[in-house]
Write a structure and sequence with these properties.
It contains 3 helices and 7 strands, in the order E-E-H-E-E-H-E-H-E-E. The strands form 2 sheets. The chain has a 5-stranded mixed beta sheet with strand order 6-5-2-1-7, with no helix packed on it. The chain has one domain: 3-Layer(bba) Sandwich (D-tyrosyl-trna(Tyr) Deacylase, Chain: A). The protein starts with a strand and ends in a 5-residue tail after the last strand. By secondary structure, the protein is of the alpha/beta class. The mean pLDDT is 96. The longest helix has 19 residues, at 99-117.
């Protein structure tokens, strides 16, 4: 399971020109899932995402976590994070989990994140053609992969 984190001042998701989710101040997360992912991958990623000290403290030093600062979270499914691009010019998405496998894991990620944060997590719509807008704060962009945790 991979997540691309972007610290944002604001972010939103629109489908067919209608906003379906938005946050102000927090993390925008693009989540990619493979068939081998499990609840252990979810637990590790959620713990890491919530506790990374990437928000500024009172002295303007990155020393505060999403949990500490009470920031918001917006999760968007993105199967293209698992694209294979070594051969040719057309990416292969064979590693990305099929929707029947990915959707329950996506929902479990959101439920686990909601539980840890103790508040509603905003989301895109799984499998939809979404337009994501964001104002990257910093910019701070990190990539976490649960398969590289050791």
């Amino acid at each position: 399971m991979k997540v691309v984190l972007q610290r944002v001042s604001k972010a939103s998701v629109a489908i067919n020109h209608q906003e379906v989710a938005s946050i102000k101040g927090g993390l925008l997360m693009f989540l990619g899932i493979v068939a081998e992912d499990t609840q252990d991958d979810i637990d590790w990623l959620v713990r890491k995402v919530c506790n990374l000290r990437i928000f500024n403290d009172a002295e303007n030093i990155m020393n505060t976590s999403l949990v500490d600062c009470g920031g918001a979270a917006l999760v968007v499914s993105q199967f293209t994070l698992h694209a294979a691009t070594k051969k040719g010019n057309r990416p292969s998405y064979i590693k990305a989990a099929k929707p029947a496998v990915a959707l329950p894991l996506y929902e479990n990620f959101i439920a686990t994140l909601t539980s840890v944060l103790g508040k509603k997590v905003q989301t895109g719509v799984f499998g939809a053609d979404m337009k994501v807008s964001l104002l990257n704060d910093g910019p701070i962009t990190l990539i976490l992969d649960s398969k590289e945790k050791s």
